[in-house]
UniProtKB/TrEMBL annotation, chain A:
GO terms for cellular component: membrane protein complex; plasma membrane. The lineage of its organism: Bacteria, Bacillati, Actinomycetota, Actinomycetes, Geodermatophilales. It comes from Klenkia soli. This is Putative ABC transport system ATP-binding protein. InterPro entries: AAA+_ATPase (IPR003593), ABC_transporter-like_ATP-bd (IPR003439), ABC_transporter-like_CS (IPR017871), ABC_transpr_LolD-like (IPR015854), MacB-like_ATP-bd (IPR017911), P-loop_NTPase (IPR027417). Keywords: ATP-binding, Nucleotide-binding, Transport.
From TrEMBL, chain B:
This is FtsX-like permease family protein. One of its GO terms (cellular component) is plasma membrane. The keyword Transmembrane helix applies. Keywords: Membrane, Transmembrane, Transmembrane helix. The lineage of its organism: Bacteria, Bacillati, Actinomycetota, Actinomycetes, Geodermatophilales.
Length: 229, 1024
């Protein structure tokens, strides 16, 4: 079976001249369908940069990124938007909730994009909020939620779309151990139950343990295995 | 965001702040200029355009006694002192009592008089001979005569005349005869002879003369002599007029202010000055009235300009507050850091002071010249020829300085205030409700106590600002409610965009933000337009009522209706306009005499606003009685056949002729003896004979005890059905003097028995008319008069027209009678009135004016050429009232406010768009990151901003319309008729659509930029 994600010798740098930052320097990575891959690395090592490329939020400077057979680097802005809508769902490191919408409405955004009937949408939103333990906070707006609660809303939203690929940037970074565990179990469960493929950056050894495999980023290059995490 | 981008955004914001400051300060400075130099220039221009007669001051001394010198000198001193600030020249005009001039060729008695004018050379042109000088002792006085007087008297230069004191006058005995020698002939200059007995005409055939004016004799004069000599001669002076015609238009504003005060006490001062002698003084002071009228009209403009200025200041403060808040938000991090380091609010404000001072200072430096140039240009256009005054009046500098201080403080504090919580706290909401309620309460009180004031009313100045502010506060409560409803609907729907749009509108606070500015500014612009229209229409209403018709021209004796109709070009009605007494009421509370206005109500000439109806409808019931069938007569003669056997009775016939316009003239025929013979009498004049009055007078030898049978027939060309013969209504005992009066069958004539002995010297009058006159004249009363009389529709009243009592019946009440704004007046149908007057024996119904409907464009000139000067059109008067110098304040003040408000409304939209640019970057990145299509994001952004803008503009428009209704009429002063709020829908629509489109369009480039956001980068930043 061909991999769902195919990253080949990808380079990405920011800025130019002497101040340029080479965030990725020749990264290659394949992820098979239904695989849960943990991405580990120190702060600033390039995790988010790689996730953005795989999540269709960014284009590589060199090399190719294929997601579900689509060359991400060749897509125009609208193509990227369509990819994000139809194929990949991201949990951003900064959550990215829409401030004027309540927790439930935020979770409902991908469903509205698909114009799901209201009843169906409400049911699905309620179930997802229940899964992340936020039913009592459904009507609160992001600025009325704690950081951990916002993070869980972001995860519920990413799952709502039933994506083929879930890209989550430190989805448990703001959570206490117990909640973090529950959330990771949830991700693992969904990967298994719905055949979702997932790429999750994390510092959490438990998450690494739950993953099918772990890849490590060091200074913009991939190193196999979780050793030294 | 990079530091460069941050400072670029701040620079852009500072630019907006500068625009707000320049706009606000320019409107403020413009208003101050209108109030100071503008008002002075307006008064100056108005005085410059005023007729000379309206700017003179005259002290008239009579009963001067034997030694008039000291009184004349004292009164002259008082007059000069009062006008000292403008140092006018005073001219003295001495007029002697009437003297007898030696009889002329026909031996008849003729009158003349002497006059001494100290500025004669400026009032007349020398036609022949020399100016009269100082006489040699004992020699005749050198004198000049107007050419017309010399012609009438048959005198030429070189002739010597003795002017004898006329017997019968009070001090004739003390007055010495004067011998004058004619040395010159002069031609009086037009308009400069108002003090002359004959206004410079030179001669009249019938000067009213004698103690009761009972005698009429030919008179000519004056014999113009050296004034000092005439004054020194002592007795025999009838009056001395001291005339000052100060050039107030050229005087400084301060000087005009001072003489306005001085003139108030002039009557008292002059009386005190001449109190030592016998002289009686009278002050004729049109200048004081002119100045007072100018000040009253300027006061209306001043109130409106002050109100506009206040609104502009309010708008500026709101705009600046909004901009400062946005700026403060942008600097929140910086401020928070400083606060964390222990800086207090005042310390932060002090830190921000230099920047604020620099901004406001530069704005003032831009705004003051802008305002000066703009107002000067506008005023030069409206007030040509007026002195522009100082470039920077002290008032302007003071007001701008005060404005600068306030704005600097506001800006420094606003830009450094602590962060506000995103949602209004419970206590904040309660405080806001309280403030809103207080505002609404104040506005209601202000509006309820408006009206009826003259001069500058502080309440009226603050009322517009209060009303608009309260309206704004109230209206801003509406959109969140609507948005909540929409939000709830959208939440139940499938689509994403509606939730995003409605959620945003429902959850972002509007009050205090750019939306509040947009609403208030739109309201101000709309109200400025509405108030302007209200004022403008009110000027037209006032002009309509004052003129009464499209064109009104005073009648000049002898010029008949057809000539007026030919020159005027439209339907013409003769107008009888005279003072009358109605019921027991001579004058109303203000001392105004009741005026009768009688027009041809079928000619459709009446104009003016009439609530609920038009003049044709209102006057439909005024013509009364059967239609009058007169007999056309074109020159030629009538035949009178009368019999009164055995008497020397004569009959004098007076024909009442109506011309095609309905104007009536009378023609008296020579006396006809009633000897049974037909007498043919030539009639001078043509028209339709509508009445014949027959005055029967006894012959010198008639036996007083006799009763004579009188039989009289008048034969007019053509066949005539039977006319009616009546005795004058209201003449006591007439039916005993002339009993058994009956009309002849067919034709015009009567029979009756006359008691010769009881006949008064003027004889007994019999009236022959085609049909019976109505018993009473139906009239419309002005509302004030009906109130004063307590009269209702259907009431019968008695009206005295001259000496004739006319029964009238109240057919209706109108707010005002055309041409009598605000005064007590009676409107009647001219023909009906004339018939009832004729029935009472009163034939004198010559018109005082002509009113023309739909005149030709050149009618005023054509009428003047036809001998009818002084025509006034309502279009012309409207233009004068709207464009005259004294009307300059209100429209310009409103224009300034309107322009400033539009600019600030757009600024509100720009600020809102700026908030979109800075506040939505993260949100746009998030939506795009989630896979929301760019088209959807674009639509959401446009709708969020567009709906906010459109709703803001619409709410502002509603508030502005309400403001127009509530304060518009009061701001136009206290005109008659009272102003009605106007709704200039088309210009309002253009304004609202323009603001909505422009306000929405400013966000387009912002949206385009936002859609190009670096999604990954923006998401990395996080935050909101
Ligand atoms: N938009 C950008 N502009 C400039 N430099 C960037 C940008 N994005 C990433 N970088 C740089 O690239 C490097 C990798 O960043 P990245 O966010 O991928 O790290 P990370 O592994 O996700 O770190 P963390 O665990 O702290 O989230 C960093 O040095 C960062 O400064
Ligand atoms: Mg990261």
């Amino acid at each position: 079976m061909s991999p769902l994600v195919e990253v080949r010798d990808v380079h990405r740098s920011f800025g130019s001249g002497p101040t340029a930052v080479h965030a990725l320097r020749g990264v290659s990575l394949d992820i098979a369908p239904g695989e849960l891959v943990a991405l580990v690395g120190r702060s600033g090592s390039g995790k988010t940069t790689l996730l953005n490329l795989v999540g269709g939020l960014d284009r590589p400077d060199a090399g190719t990124v294929h997601v579900a057979g689509t060359d991400v680097g060749a897509l125009d802005d609208d193509g990227l938007v369509a990819l994000r809508r139809d194929v990949v769902s991201s949990v951003f490191q900064t959550f990215g909730l829409v401030p004027v919408l309540s927790a439930a409405e935020n979770v409902g955004v991908p469903l509205r994009l698909r114009r799901l009937p209201a009843d169906e949408r409400e049911q699905r939103v309620a179930r997802l909020l229940d899964l992340v333990g936020l039913t009592p906070h459904a009507t609160q707006r992001p600025d009325e939620l704690s950081g951990g609660q916002q993070q869980r809303v972001a995860l519920a939203r990413a799952l709502a779309a039933s994506p083929r690929l879930l890209v989550a940037d430190e989805p448990t970074g703001q959570l206490d151990r117990e909640t973090g565990l529950a959330v990771m179990a949830l991700v693992r469960g969904i990967v298994e139950a719905e055949g979702v493929t997932a790429l999750v950056s994390t510092h959490d050894p438990v998450m690494i343990a739950l993953a099918d495999r772990a890849v490590r980023v060091v200074d913009g290059r991939l190193v196999d295995g979780p050793a030294g995490a | 965001m990079s530091a460069g981008a941050r400072s670029r955004v701040q620079l852009r914001l500072l630019g907006v702040v500068l625009v707000v400051l320049v706009a606000g300060l320019t409107v403020l400075a413009g208003c101050v200029l209108l109030l100071t130099t503008g008002a002075d220039r307006a008064r100056q221009a108005a005085l410059g355009q005023a007729a000379v007669d309206d700017t003179t001051v005259q002290v008239v001394l009579t009963d001067l006694g034997d030694d008039p010198g000291p009184a004349v000198e004292a009164a002259g001193g008082a007059l000069t002192a009062a006008l000292a600030p403008v140092a006018p020249g005073t001219s003295t005009w001495l007029t002697s009592t009437v003297r007898d001039v030696p009889p002329g060729a026909d031996g008849g008695r003729r009158l003349g008089w002497l006059a001494g004018i100290d500025d004669l050379t400026a009032r007349a042109d020398l036609v022949a001979g020399t100016w009269p000088g100082v006489p040699e002792p004992g020699a005749p006085w050198p004198a000049a005569l107007p050419v017309a007087a010399a012609d009438a008297l048959g005198l030429a230069p070189g002739d010597t005349v003795v002017l004898d004191p006329t017997t019968g006058l009070a001090d004739a005995a003390a007055t010495a005869p004067v011998t004058v020698q004619l040395v010159g002939l002069v031609q009086p200059r037009a308009g400069a002879w108002a003090q002359d007995r004959l206004a410079g005409a030179g001669a009249v055939p019938d000067l009213e003369f004698g103690v009761f004016g009972g005698t009429r004799l030919p008179a000519a004069g004056p014999f113009l002599v050296d004034p000092a000599t005439l004054l020194a001669a002592g007795p025999g002076l009838e009056q001395v007029a001291l005339v000052a015609a100060p050039d107030v238009a050229a005087a400084s504003p301060a000087a005009v202010d001072r003489i306005t005060d001085e003139l108030g006490t002039l009557t008292r001062d002059v009386r005190a000055a001449v109190s030592g002698g016998p002289a009686t003084s009278r002050v004729v002071n049109p200048l004081a009235a002119t100045l007072a009228a100018a000040d009253a009209r300027l006061a209306t403009g001043r109130t409106a300009v002050l109100a506009a200025g206040l609104l502009a200041v309010l708008l500026t403060v709101v705009a600046l507050g909004t901009a400062a808040r946005v700026l403060g938000d942008r600097r929140l991090a910086e401020t928070a850091l400083l606060r964390a380091r222990g800086a207090t609010g005042p310390q932060l404000a002090r830190r921000a002071l230099p920047e604020a001072a620099l901004l406001v200072g530069s704005a003032a430096v831009l705004a003051v010249p802008l305002a000066v140039v703009a107002t000067r240009a506008a005023l030069a256009d409206r007030l040509p020829g007026s002195d522009p005054g100082p470039l920077l009046p002290a008032g302007l500098l003071g007001a701008v300085a005060a404005g600068v201080v306030v704005l600097v403080a506001l800006l420094a504090v606003g830009a450094t205030r602590a962060a506000t919580p995103g949602r209004t706290t419970g206590r904040g909401a309660v405080a806001r409700s309280g403030a809103d309620l207080l505002l609404v309460g104040l506005a209601v009180v202000a509006v309820l106590s408006l009206g009826g004031t003259v001069g500058t009313d502080p309440l009226l100045v603050v009322a517009p600002a209060l009303v608009l502010l309260a309206g704004c506060a109230l209206s801003l409560r509406l959109p969140p409610r609507l948005a909540h409803l929409a939000d709830r609907r959208a939440a139940r729907g499938r689509a994403l965009a509606p939730v995003l749009v409605a959620g945003d509108l429902a959850r972002r606070s509007l009050a205090g933000g750019a939306t509040a500015l947009l609403v208030l500014a739109t309201a101000a612009a709309v109200a400025a337009g509405g108030i302007g229209a209200t004022w403008s229409v009110s000027q037209a209403d006032q002009a309509d009522l004052r003129v009464g018709a499209d064109l009104a021209v005073p009648a000049v004796g002898g010029i008949p209706g057809p000539v007026v109709a030919a020159a005027g070009g439209g339907a013409v009605s003769p107008v009888v306009a005279r003072p009358v007494a109605l019921g027991s009421l001579l004058r109303d509370e203000d001392g105004d005499a009741t005026r009768l206005v009688a027009v041809d109500t079928t000619a459709g000439v009446l104009r003016g606003r009439l609530p609920g109806t038009d003049w044709a409808g209102a006057t439909a019931g005024l013509p009364a009685g059967d239609p009058e069938q007169g007999v056309p007569l074109s020159g030629g003669s009538v035949v009178v056949t009368g019999t009164a056997a055995g008497t020397g009775l004569t009959a004098v016939l007076t024909l009442v002729l109506a011309d095609p316009t309905g104007a009536r003239t009378t023609t008296a025929l020579p006396a006809v003896p009633l000897d049974g013979l037909p007498r043919s009498v030539v009639v001078d004049g043509d028209g339709t004979v509508v009445a014949v009055a027959v005055d029967l007078a006894p012959g010198p030898d008639d036996d007083p005890d006799r009763v004579a049978r009188v039989d009289l027939a008048v034969t007019l060309p053509g066949s005539v059905p039977g006319w009616v013969a009546t005795l004058p209504r209201g003449q006591q005992g007439a039916d005993q003097l002339l009993s058994g009066l009956e009309a002849v069958d067919g034709g015009i004539g009567f029979r009756g028995r006359l008691v010769l002995g009881a006949l008064p010297p003027t004889g007994q009058r019999v009236l022959l008319t085609p049909s019976r006159a109505p018993d009473a004249v139906p009239v419309l009363l002005s509302a004030g008069l009906a109130d004063d009389l307590g009269a209702d529709v259907g009431d019968d009243l008695s009206m005295a027209v001259g000496d004739t009592g006319v029964p009238v019946e109240v057919a209706g009440v109108v707010p005002d009678v055309p041409s009598v704004p605000g005064g007590p007046a009676v409107l009647a149908d001219a023909a009906t009135l004339a018939r009832v007057l004729v029935a009472a024996g009163d034939l004198d119904v010559a018109p005082q004016a002509w009113w023309v409907a739909a005149p030709d464009p050149g009618a005023v000139g054509a009428l003047a050429a036809a001998g009818l000067p002084d025509a006034v059109t309502r279009a012309g008067l409207t233009a004068d009232l709207r464009g005259g110098p004294l009307a300059v304040g209100l429209p310009l003040g409103l224009a300034l406010l309107g322009a400033g408000a539009v600019l600030l409304a757009v600024t509100g939209s720009v600020l809102q768009a700026g908030a979109v640019r800075s506040g939505r970057r993260a949100e746009v990145a998030r939506l795009l990151g989630l896979g929301v299509p760019r088209a959807t994001v674009r639509a959401v952004l446009l709708l969020q901003h567009g709906i906010g803008t459109v709703v803001g503009v619409l709410l502002g428009a509603v508030v502005g319309v309400v403001g127009t209704v509530l304060v518009g009429p009061a701001l136009t002063g206290s005109p008659v008729p009272s102003a009605e709020a106007q709704f200039p829908w088309s210009s309002w629509t253009a304004l609202v659509v323009g603001l909505a489109v422009l306000g929405t369009a400013v966000v387009l480039p912002v949206v385009r930029g936002l859609l190009r956001v670096d999604v990954a980068g923006a998401l990395r930043e996080g935050g909101s």
